[in-house]
Amino acid sequence: MRRAVAGSMGLLLLVALLLGMSGCTSTATLTITNDCVASKFFSKASASGVQVTVTSSWQEASGGSNTESALMKFGQKRSFIAVAPSEGGIFGGATFRVTAVLVDAGSGENKDLGGGNWTVKEDGSQAVAISELSGAQNCR
Amino acid sequence: MAFRAFVFALVMLSLTLAFTDDKALARIQVGVGMGSLGEDFVPLGRVVVDVLDVGIGVLAIDAEYWFIAAGSQWLFTFVTFKFPVLFEPVLGVAPIISVSSQDIGLVTVAFAVKGGIGLSLGPWGLFGETIFFVSPTYGFSDEPSFAFGLSLRF
């Protein structure tokens, strides 16, 4: 009998722990693919590619945003993850502001690829390509 | 945007059929497959229409539609020359059309050159090809793309 009670309580504790953990790690994910044709031709040079900067902020959340930057080679796929604020609450989703620059380290030339905004629901994900940015005509 | 791309592809196909020299020759092949984009693979759709038999081979229009992401696709409209021997070697050249959620536009920085093989198994066929991007400014791309898949001939 004692064992059954202890086992049940242990199980309840485990479930509560799992629910608690899942409640504090809400995320939204934006995965970017570099399909910029121009970057295909100098992607071997270490400092060349598309320099992507992503700023994420949560809707209906006061305060901060998070900014990440990465150099992406042609064909590369990279996920940018926004983690919900630790104070909790109900969020509609995260807004990702993406800006990009085509960097040709060989010639030293940079081309602005403009930007774009995407909203991803809480616990959701979305895939976008560099061609969807406002200045993507510089890729072709 | 996807609808516009579909209409565009339909117009291209209609024009190809309209200008086909011998209607009896105008065999159509429809296929699906995968194409490499960097270290990843993306799905593709393909329509090939034989246009002109010149004895040693067949001239064809080969349209490939690569689905890179929901808002971004590439359309290659290859003009190909196919040799009617085992494994059907084929050579082709194509402009690249970028179809994105922003607009549809011709890629001027590069065009595509491909070499491939095919294997017919009745109405079904297998295809594999290597695609080089060639740029008037930058020369050949540092590494080729690959594509393979299954097709059905009508």
Strand content of chain A: 35-45%
CATH class of chain B: Mainly Beta
Which class of chain A in CATH terms? Mainly Beta
Tally of discrete structural domains of chain B: 1
CATH architecture of chain B: Beta Barrel
Shape of chain B: globular
Put simply, the count of helices of chain B is: 1
Order of helices and strands of chain B: HEEEEEEEEE
- What gap, in angstroms, lies between the N and C termini of chain A? 73 Å
Query: pLDDT average of chain B, as an integer?
Result: 86
User: How many strands of chain B?
Assistant: 9
CATH topology of chain A: Immunoglobulin-like
Strand order in space, largest sheet of chain A? 3-2-5-6
Q: Report the structural category of chain A.
A: alpha+beta
- Assembly annotation: heterodimer
Residue windows where pLDDT falls under 50 for at least 5 positions of chain A? 16-23
Order of helices and strands of chain A: HEEEEEEE
Shape descriptor of chain A? elongated
Share of helical residues of chain A: 10-25%
Description:
The complex is a heterodimer of chains A (about 140) and B (about 150). Chain A is of the alpha+beta class. Chain A has a single domain, classed as Immunoglobulin-like, CATH 2.60.40. Helix content of chain A is about 15%, strand content about 45%. Chain A has 1 helix and 7 strands. In chain A, the strands form 2 sheets. Chain A has a 4-stranded antiparallel β-sheet, with no helix packed on it. A 3-stranded mixed β-sheet of chain A has the order 4-1-7, with no helix packed on it. In chain A, strand 2 (about 50-60) and strand 3 form a beta hairpin. The longest helix of chain A has 22 residues, at about 1-25. Chain A is elongated and about 70 Å long. At the A-B interface, strand 7 of A face strand 5 and strand 6 of B.
